[in-house]
Amino acid sequence: MNWDIATKVAVAALALAVALVQNPFRSRNPRKEVKEDLEIYNALPEGSESREALARYVDERVLHLIEDEGERRRDLWGAFGGVVIIAFAGLLIFGSMINDRPAWISIPLIIIGGLIGWMGYAKFYLSFKRAKRDHAGNLIDWPASLRDRLQSASATAPKADGEGDAG
Hints:
The chain has helices at 3-25, 30-43, 49-68, 76-98, 103-128, 144-156; strands at 72-73, 131-132. It starts with a helix and ends in an 11-residue tail after the last helix. It is mostly helical. Helix content is 71%, strand content 2%. The protein has one domain (3-155). The chain has six helices and two strands; from the N terminus they run H-H-H-E-H-H-E-H. A two-stranded antiparallel sheet has the order 1-2.
């Protein structure tokens, strides 16, 4: 493959990787969000329903913040493993593009490298995100959106014969 094309694709892939990796670093600041909610609370008129609802919401968030503050941590070794997987995928893609291989060999290698890269990104993202973890760094409490989807899928799944029968 031509070096000119390979370098253009590599630069584009690097830009995409940087854009994807920046997402975990834009973490929320719960204390700042509570301060902003309190500013809104103070701006609302006395006796307003929304003011009371916001007060309850802020109370819940502060309790949640205090409860989870010491329990959430990152799995830095897992994040490092994700970066290594992404680097391996990049080398696989780049190596398949710079050699003069036929397209029927290069294209599958590029696709496989892309899939491996996405798996590495998922590993990095889940490891770098602060969450409740055991001593080995494994997630104890999955992110709420994923947990809710898993629970709704198991609730709607058809039951096997004999399950749920009384008697």
